[in-house]
Every structure is written in C-alpha cells, then in structure tokens.
Amino acid sequence: MHRFSLAARRHLLALAAYTLLSVALSWPLLLHIATHVPGVPQWAFDEATFVWNIWYFKHALLETLQSPLYSELIWFPLGIDLILYTYNFYHVLAALPLALAVNLPFASNVALLTSTILSGYGTWLLTLSLLTKLEKEKGRTPSRELGAPVFLAAFIAGAVYAFASNRSVYAALGHYDMTTTQWIPFYALALLRAFDLNLSPARRRKWAILGGLFFALTGLAEMISALFLAMFTIIALLVRLREGQTLNAPVAHAAQSNHRLTLSRARTLASSLLLLGLVAFLVWSPALIPILRTFFSADYDLEGWGDALMLSADLLGWFTATVFHPIFGGDVVREMRLVQQRAINPELTGFRDINTVFLGWATLALALVGALTHWRRAKLWVWTSLVFGVLTLGPLLQINGRYRFDLDGLETTVPLPFLLLHFIPIVKANRAPNRNSVLLMLGLAVLVGYGLYWLLDQARRRRLTMNIAWLRPTVATALTAAILFEHLALPLPLTDARIPAVYETIAAEPGEFSILQLPLGWRNSFGVFGPENTLLQYYQSAHGKPMLGGNISRAPAFKMQYFERIPYFKALTDVQFGRPVPPETLEAAIGQAEDLMYLYDTRYVLLFPPIPDRPPYSDTWQDAWDFVKRTLPLEPAPFWAEDGIEAYRVIQPAGGDQFYLNLGEPGTFAYRGEGWDEAEVDAPYGASAVWATGRSSRLFMPLRRVNADAVYRIQVTAHPFAYPNSPPQQVALTINGHRLDAQPLPDGWHTLAWAAPGALLKNGLNRLELTWGYAAVPRQVIPGERMIGATGVELPIDADLKAFAEGGFIALFDEEGRQIDGSAGRRGVNITVLDRRTGRVLDKVGFDTTASEAENERLIAFVEQIPVGAPTLIVTYGEATNHLSEEALKALESVGAALTLTEVRGRHFAVVGVKGAAPGSAAQAIDADEAFLRVSLNRDRRPLAAAVDSVQISR
User: What residues have CB less than 8 Å from 20, skipping those under 6 apart?
Assistant: First the structure.
C-alpha cells in the first residue's frame, strides 16, 4: 500500500505541476477561458474553425442526425465534404461534454490545456521508463523519491515537449491540430514496450493494443501526425534490427546486442506490429476509410509543391527565439506582414513564415549532452531528432530566407530529403515541413532527459563525496527555468470568441435561408477567393443558417471555380482586395445581384468592420460596404447597428412556385452545381445548351409559396450524347434528396417530365440532381485517327500546326492533353522531327528564309539528314518564301510534301509528313491568310452524358 501511495504521489505531483505550468504559460487564457480562444486576430482565424468543428459535429450528429463529414451550411449552396478536412476529431470529442455543459470557447480551451498537460505527462512517463531501465542497468534500485535524478530528469523532459516553442506558436496561430500532441509520447512508450522481448507475451500484447489505440487517437487529431508516427515506427524498427536486441534491454544481454534477431524474435516483433496496426485501424477506421477512399478518387491532390518552401523551417530559425517571446521576440503583427511581403517578393531576406521551430539553446545543449553520454541507449532518439529535424527544413535549405546561394559566382541550392517524400502517394499531402517538429521535439525532449539525468547523477556523486545537499535541486531548478524561459510565448495571443447579439434575431426566424457577411471569401489549403474571416463561420454556431463563404482544408477545384465564375462574387472580391473591377464584370454583377439573392434565399446581409492591421479588408472595407449597399436589394436602414456592425434585411421579391431555367442563355453559372461543362453556353446538336458531364449533374432552382398538397411537373429538355453502338441513355431525377424514377432519353432532342408532390419542394433553394445512365469520353468512343495523309504512318502524338502572317506554331499534345511547344518559333520555315514511336521531339530548327538565301541552303541540308521514317512537321512563320527555292521545295518532297513556288509564293503552308514517304502523300495546307492542319485523335476528354437545353418546374 505504501508503494502504491508513493507511486501515486509521483504521478499526481507530475500532473499537478504540468497543470500549473500549463495555466501559467498560457496566460492570460485563464482570465478569459469562457470568452476567448488562443489565436492571433490578425492571422487566418484557424482557431475559430476548430471551435466551429465542435459545434458542427454536435449539430450534425446529435441535432440533425446526419453525417458530420459533410455540410451544406458552409460553401452554400454547393456544400462541402469534411472528409479531408482538419477536423481534429479528438479535440471535438474531448470538448463535446463541456460544450454542452458550458460553452464552446470554454470547452475548446479546456481540451487544449488538457492536451498540453498530457503531452508533458506522457513524455514524463516515457522518459521515466527509459531512465528507470538505465538505473537498473547500472545495478541500482531506482529511487522513488520525488527529488531523485530519474524523476527530475523525466519531469523536465516532459516540460520540454509540452512547452516547446513549436506548440506555443501553433497555439498562437490557431493550429490546434498541431497542439493536440499528447498521444504521441504515449504511443512511443507503448511501441517500445511492445518491442520489449523481455516482457511476457501477454504484456507485450497489452502494450501493442495500447499502441494501436494511441496511434488511432493521434490520427483522429491530425492525420499528418499519424504519418509521422508511422515514420517513427520505421526508425524504431531499423534501430531495433541494427541492435539485434530489444530496445532498452538489460546489461545482461549486451553480449547479444550486435547480433541480428532470430527468426522467432522477428516473428514476435511482427506479431506485435500486426496487432498494433489492427487495433489502430479498427479504432480509426470510421474516419480513415472515407479519407483513403477520397484520397484515391477525388480531385483533392496537392498541386505542385503547395507552400512547402514557405512552410519550411529556416536553419537560422532553429537558433532564433520565436516572435512571441516576451524579451527576444518582436512585433507579431509586423512580422506577419513581413511574411506576406516575402511571399510576394522572394528577394526580401528574413524567415518566409512565422518561425515555429526554435530548438532552444539550453534544450539543445542538454540534448547533445544526453546524446554523447548515452549514445548506446539513446540511438533511437538521436535518429528521431536528426530525421525529423532535417525534414522540418523542407525541400531546400534556407538560411534567413535565402535558398539560393552564390558559391564564387555559381548560384546553387541545397536539396534536402523532404524532396523525396513529395513523390510518395498520401505522404506528399504533408505540405508543411515545419510540422515534423512534433517528433523532432519529442526526440530532443527524451535526449534532454538523458542529459539532465547524467548531470544530476554527477551532482549526486559530488553530494555523496562533498555533502552538498543543495546541488542537485539547484541544478534541476536552474535548468528547468532556463528551458521554460527560452521557449516562452507570453502573453498568449487571444481571439475574442463572444458572438454578436445580432445573430439572436437571425436564429429566431424559422426556416432555412442563407446569410451573406462581409468580409466575404472562400478559403482552402490551396488558395483563397475573397478575404475570408473564419470567425463568421464560428458565429454560425449561434444561428445555424447556411452562409455564403467558408473555410475548408481541401476542396475539389470546381468548388472554388463555381464562385469565381459568378460576376457578382468576382466584382465583390476585386473590391475587397482593392482591385479595379472590369466594366463588363461590374455590369454583369449589378444585373444579377437581385437574382442571386432570390436564388440563394439570402435574407440578411451583415457588414463587419475591419480588424486593425489585417489587410486587405482593413484598407478596403468601406468600399466593400458601399458596393454591397449600392448593388444588393437591401432595406434603406440597418435593423441592427452596434459594435461597428451593420445588419440589413434583404428585400426579397414575392416570387412563385414555378421556375424556368434556360441553360442555353448566358448567366446560368450560379444555377449549375457539379457535373456541368465549364463553357457558359455551348451549341451541341444545333441548339444552345450546356453539356452534362459525368454521371450526375446538379441544378439549383429557387421557389416560393410552394403548395405542399399540389403536384408539380418537372421538365427537362435534353439530347443524349450518342455515338456508334452507344447504349440507350436514361436519366433519373432527384429532388432535395428524394429520388424519382429513371426515364429513357432516346436519341434526338426530347422533353422528359416527372410528377412530384409539393412536399418534396422547398420554399427557397431546391437542389435537383440528374443521374445519367452513362457518360462517355469522346476520345475513347469516337477516337478519330492520326494517319498522316496517305503515308500509311500514324503520328504518335496529337499535333496542331498553324501558319499565318503574324506567326506560326506547332502544338503537340500528350495523352493527358498537356500542350508541348513543338516549334523553334523562328521567322521563315520551322521544321520539327519526332521520334516515330514515342512522339518525343528529336530536333526543331527554324530557317529564316524571309531574309537569307543561306538559310535556304541550311534548310536543304537539314532535310537531307532527317532519319528515314521520322515524322516531320513543317510550318511557316510570316512571309517565308522570299528566299525559298525550288530546290528547297524539292527537298521537302522527301517527307511527302508536294509544293511549288507558284502555289506557296505569298502564302502560308503547313505540312505533316514522314521522311522517305512518296511525294504528295503528306498532309498539307496552303492558304493566303491562315494555313491550319490538325493530325490528332479526338481531343475531347470530357465525360459527356447529354446536352441539356432547359429545366422547368411548373404546376
């Protein structure tokens, strides 16, 4: 009982100390714990997103009984998947009870503080376990005293991990997913125990199960952190295999440490990992399976390198205190503005992003002591620190913002291993190298524990020989203070999370309708459209109505393009960014403003004042307000005006329960959701219409005064995409989630009609979805051919050639449709030679026969050396016949051309031939104005279902 009590005291003391430090080092959060949340108001407001997550999860799961992985309340009217969204499920689930009992800010703050406390406590447990085994190796009985070196060293290691600068900066920037790190040290402890062959099989299984649980909890908090744990597991395995012995094995087995694991041990290790992985998958699977399915099927792929270079740690930053430090830091807002300026002008020196990876001077020194004094025992943590440390530096080494270096006149860069990760599926989704710091700092924290243990052990020996009782606690206290001081981020920036009272009025109005708020914008990880303010999304927790705008981690390209194509949003975005609005865009915006408010059933417009020092809206808000007041149908005076906010009611027309949408007229983008061609209006089959692309196509139709007892008629006029041997087309209609029967759509233009009860329709925006029986790609079903004239040879790549007075080009297209410039681009005659098998450009040369006879001779010589069988493309640029001779045209006959000076004089020509082909067998075009030649398969890669002319709802 005494032993249990003493052990419990140590755990309670550690938890209490980490709790006190968490409160103190997040000051003044405690004073505002129910009204504010950590985050810099001038930054991106990610903190508001994480608080919104708690509300929406509760709203979807408990109030509307819907999946929390999809929402129609943001990015209205499209809605958005929340599958690859940075949800931080653990934070949501941990905060949910307190959100129901108190409020959202209080719940989120307590969950964040708990994450910090448990991050310290988990690292303390991990380091305590490692150092206790070290004591046993030395033949000592580990002391259970609270002042023992093992306890103190482990406690300070926990403090390093919990209060390191990276966690503080992430909290200050509102990146709560990267502060939910508490399960990482718990996983490391469980993994090492599961690997410990000195434990009984039952205990190893227990630790493997716990490891799987901690891995899943990490993944539920942040998928990238789970990826880091997978990488850490590989490092642990490699170290384990290298040692040929269990990690942290007793000295008695040291003789075996240089031998490989026996087959039986390898099987034991594999079984532990298998059990761990199975448990992790089972716990994580409700979120993981949709994530993986979306990763491999949806249009969410990271384009290029994202912001990897900007979001990398700077080598100088490793040794520079963060901007949030009360003494060594600086003006946070000013530094953020500089970061934005450096993103625009790469020539400016300084960190490209807010420095998140400061290692700490005392921290690094102690970690080095630990690595040097306990290398054999600390290999895993040295490698963890090195691997994840290098990965924080990103794809290219940066020093004070510079990644191009002048080496005695030679400009060069220093590539780093992060480059390799970019080419690994799923792994490359990590676009922020600095996030690797969550494992880097764990490695350093454990090494600090080893280092401090060594120092305290030395102090213990001196105490025994010199009777200096105060030495050990003094050393521990001084080093703890030094570490905490260098990582300080005080005062913690806070964002006001109190919701304006105006939303009470909006919430009290029954029914589903949308609201528009300024600043208006849409943001995802790849870009922004408009100066989005996520606080406005968080305010949705008070009213629950759909809103225009929103913040999401990843979104298919179409989601952003939908809003970018609508003139009103284009104009408003230009105004909010301080850009001139093109006259044609302004005219179209004004013309559609009232229709948009009717379509979206937008009943309230709220105009928010700017946050000081948060451009562009802080500079353009008055212009944006004036634009909205001038263009939207608002009541003359705001119904609510307090705290600088103006709230207006929208004057909605009476409308009716019938609506006709002619897709063949311009201006229908706002009514078209997913599944339509990008063209505003097309003319397939001789009629103005729009192509439906893919297996389903959504439309938005506004109605008012719907009679629930009436029967409505929905008519669709369409023409199927027909091709030789195409199957019969059919189409089913879904109205607001209710599917009606499919109907056949014969070839030709036909009007299909469905009868629908009024109960299926809404007063407001209605979502109609057309589900097609098939969608086919013209390139696949009507492929065409690349036969080169009468040569009997097919061109291995698609090609367009065009010759005209002002220029000429040869455009090649690969199998994905990407264009390749195939011309030398010179005035005169341009000749391009291709590889007959791959279509690769072997040579492209221009001959200025406009100006020089010598160029004419060069042309003849060049044609003679073209390999037999090589596809040859020829195009003129401008007036090419001034010095073009009959001999040159005779030489071109060797590629199948048939040209005379009489035919081409003063004209333009294009030829596609094959070296060695008979004269006259090449494809060629000659014209006085424009010679165009296409040798290509069908380049239409759209999945076409049908051309749709109109949709009508009537009674």
Answer: none
CB 220 within 8 A of CB 89: yes
pLDDT band at 470 (very low <50, low <70, confident <90, very high): low
Output the pLDDT for position 273.
Answer: 93
DSSP 579: P
DSSP-derived pairing of the beta strands 738-745 and 729-735: antiparallel
| Residue found by looking up tokens 């759509």 in the block | 745
Same domain, 442 and 503: no
Half-sphere exposure of 465 (CA within 13 A, CB side): 6
Confidence of residue 251 (pLDDT cuts 50, 70, 90): very low
DSSP letters spanning 54-78? HHHHHIIIIIS---TTEESSSSTTT
Q: 513's torsion region: left (phi>0), alpha (psi -120 to 50) or beta?
A: beta
In a domain, 167, yes or no: yes
Residue-wise pLDDT for 15-27, tens only, equals 999 999 999 999 9
Instruction: State the pLDDT at residue 871.
Output: 97
d(CA 768, CA 935): 41
| Same domain assignment for residues 924 and 805 | yes
Mean pLDDT, range 339-367, rounded to an integer: 88
Q: What does the buried/exposed string (b/e) look like for 738-758 if buried means 16 or more CB atoms within 10 Å of the residue's CB?
A: eeeeeeebeeebeebebebee
Phi then psi for 268, rounded to 5 degrees?
-65, -45
* Tokens read off for 645: 């906010």
Q: How confident is the model at residue 885 (pLDDT cuts 50, 70, 90)?
A: very high
Of 613, 528, 519, the residue nearest 575 (C-alpha): 519
Residue 43 inside a domain? The answer is: yes
Going by their DSSP bridges, the two strands 798-804 and 930-937 should be labelled as antiparallel
* 116, two tokens: 């910090």
Number of CB atoms found within 10 A of residue 724's CB: 6
From 461, 492, 523, give the residue that closes a domain.
492
Q: Angle at the Cα of 261 (from 257 to 267), degrees rounded to 5? A: 145
d(CA 523, CA 906): 54
- CA max distance for the chain: 112
716-759 per-position pLDDT tens digit: 999 999 999 999 999 999 999 999 999 999 999 999 999 999 99
Select from 301, 287, 267 the least CA-distant residue to 217.
287
Domain presence at residue 420: no
Q: Are 127 and 367 in contact (CB under 8 A)?
A: no
Same domain, 30 and 173: yes
Which amino acid makes up residue 602? T
- Beta strands 36-38; 494-496: pairing state: antiparallel
Q: How confident is the model at residue 246 (pLDDT cuts 50, 70, 90)?
A: very low
Q: What would the pLDDT profile of 42-100 be if each residue is shown by its tens digit? A: 876 789 999 999 999 999 999 999 999 999 999 999 999 998 888 899 999 999 999 99
What is 264-322 written as a DSSP string?
A: HHHHHHHHHHHHHHHHHHHHHHHHHHHHHHHHHHSS-PPPTTTTTTTTSPPGGGGGS--
Q: Which of 829, 786, 814 is nearest to 935 (CA)?
A: 786
Residue 151 shares a structural domain with residue 2: yes
- Is 597's pLDDT higher than 50? yes
Q: Is 423 inside a domain boundary?
A: no
Contact 922/789 with Cβ under 8 angstroms? yes
- Amino acid identity of 171? A
- Give the number of domains in the chain: 5
Rounded to an integer, what distance in angstroms lies between the CA atom of residue 925 and that of residue 898? 10
